[in-house]
C-alpha cells in the first residue's frame, strides 16, 4: 500500500469521529434552530428565522448578554493583572518559592461547583465568614450574592479566586521561557527595572498573555456552574448569564428551537472573539503557517 | 479511481468497527431478559424510598431491577428526553407533580385505568386523600388516571410555639396580618439576630412556591379556571404582592437568595419565629444534634386572609411511561409500593410523608415525636391547591419568579411587577395555545 492510501486509512477514524461528534450535531442544530416545538403536544413546526428574530426583541436575552459581558470583562481583566503580578513575583528567586507556587495553584484544583458551594456558605449573611471579617474591620456586612447590585460582582469574585491561578500558571511558564540574553543586553544598556519590564518582558510575554486570556475568555463566556448553584440567575435577574438562559429555555421550558438559536449567537460571538486572538497569535508567530 | 474507492472504504471500515462495538453492547443488554424494571428517580429521600421498595420487590419476585437516580435539577431533563423520544428505557418514573400536565398532555404516560379494571378495582383506592388522587388525573380531578401519588408533600406553616404562646397565639397565627404584626414585634426587638419571619426569595421556583399560598389567601388566582385569561391584574393580587414586601421588611437581610434549606437553618438555630416550608424538614427539629429548638416548633395550616389559607401541593408521583414494555409488572409494583404497608415502610425508613389517610392516622406513627406534624399535614393536603395544571408551567413559573424576585430585591414596585407579569405570562399562554 502506498503512503498516500495509508494516509487516508489512518485518518478515517478521526474524520468519522469529527463527522459524528461535530458536523452532525452542528447540522442538526441548524435544523432545530429553524423549528419550534409545541410544549403541549411535542409537535415540531418549521418557522424559518423566527427564532433569530425573537432574539432581537427578547429583553431576557439582552439582559443575559449584558451580564455575561460584564462578568467576562471584569473577571478576565482582574485575573490577568493579578496573575501577571503573582507570576512576576514568583519568578524571582527566594526561599520557599516552590511552596508559594503550590499554594497559589490549589483553588484551581477544586471543581467549580464545589467552589460555588463554599462561597455560598462564606457569603451567608448571618453565619458566613465574609461578613464576620468585614465586621472585624468595622465595616457593615454586605448582601453579597443576595443583593441585586452586588450579586454579579460576588460571582465574579469566585471566578477570580478560582481562576487567577490558571493565568498565573501560564504566565509563569511564559516568563520562564524568555531567554536571558535580552535581559543581559538591557542591563548593559543601563535599563531600569521598569524599562526592562516594559521593553523586554512584556513584548516577549505577549504570546503567553494572549493564550491565557483566550482560554479564560472562552470559559467565562459560557459561565454556568457558579450562577446555577449560587443564585439561579437572581436576584432580580441580575446574574442570569447566556448559558443559564439557554439551558433553562432548552431543558426547563422545552423550547428547543429558541435555545438552539441563542446557542448559535453565542457560538458566533465566541468564535469571532477567539479568532481575533488567534490571528494576533499568528502574527506573533506562535502558530506556524 | 482506486484512491477514491479507498477513500470510501476506509470510513466504512471504521463505521463497521464502531457498529460492532455498539452491537456487542446492545446484545449484553438484551440477555438481561424482558422482565427487568428500570426506575428513574431523584436521589433525595423521596426517590430513595421508592428505589428501596423496588429492590425489595425485585428480590421477592425474582425480577431484575435497575435504579437510575439523578439530582432534582437533572431528573426532569432525563425523564423528558427519554419520554419524548419514546425510548422505553424506563418502566417507572418518579416525577414532581408540576411536571405531570406536560407529561400527560404529550401522551408520554400510560393510562392506568385499564390496569385498575383488570385488577378488579375502579381506580386509585379511596384511602388516598382526594387532593392526592386529583393530581394523578388528567385533566385534573376528572380525567383518567396516569400516576400513583407516591410521596405526600404539601407546605405547612412552621412557628415557634413558645414565642407565639407569649403573644396569645398558641395554635399559630390565623391570618397573614397576625403573621406580620407579630413578626414585626419579634424582628424589631431581635437585635438583628432574631427575626419574626423568614422568606424564601430565591429567583425561580423557590420564590414562587413561597408566594403562591399568599396569593391564594388574599383571594387572587393566577388564571381563570379555564386558563383562558391571566388574572394577575386584580386588586387582590396587588394586595398579595404588596403584603410580600411587608414580609421582606421583617425577614433577615439577604432573603432574596434564601432557599428552603436556609429557612430551615434559621429556624433550627432559633433565629426565626415563622416560615412556610416543606414537611421534609420537620424531623430535623426533633433531633437535638441539629436543632436548638427541640419541642418548640409547632405546625399549622397556611394562614388565611381574604379567603381560607391553602398550601401548595407538591407531591411526588410515580408513573409508567407509555413506551415501557413492562407496564403490567410496573403497575403491580406500584400497587404494592403505594399500599398502606408500603407507605408506612417509606415513612419509617426515610421519613417520606404518605398519601393515604390510614397511614396518616396510624397509631404507631402518631406516637412517634418526629411525626407529630402528621395531623397538620393531612389537613394541609386535604385543603391544598395545585400549581396551575398547564403544560408550560416551568416557563410561566420562571417568568413570574423573575418579577417576584425583583419585588423581593426592592428593584421593582408591586404594581410594575404585576403589570409586567400579566403581559409576559399572557404572551406565554398565547404561545402555548391556552389563551386565544
Give the tags.
heterodimer; A: 289 residues; MetI-like fold; two-stranded antiparallel sheet; 12 helices; 73% helix; 2% strand; B: 436 residues; alpha/beta; D-Maltodextrin-Binding Protein, domain 2; 2 domains; 11 strands; 48% helix
Largest sheet of chain A: 2 strands, antiparallel
Question: Per DSSP, what share of the residues of chain A sits in E-state strands of 2 or more residues?
Answer: under 5%
The SSE order of chain B reads: HEHEHEHHHEEEEHHEHHHEHEEHHHHHHH
> Could you tell me the number of beta strands of chain B?
11
**What would CATH call the class of the largest domain in chain B?**
Alpha Beta
Counted beta strands of chain A = 2
Q: What is the averaged pLDDT score of chain A?
A: 92
Q: Assign the CATH superfamily of the domain at 52-111 and 151-283 in chain A.
A: MetI-like
The amount of helix of chain B comes to: 40-55%
* Helix-strand makeup class of chain A: mainly alpha
Order of helices and strands of chain A: HEEHHHHHHHHHHH
Q: By helix and strand content of chain B, what is the structural category? A: alpha/beta
In the CATH hierarchy, the architecture of the domain at 52-111 and 151-283 in chain A is: Orthogonal Bundle
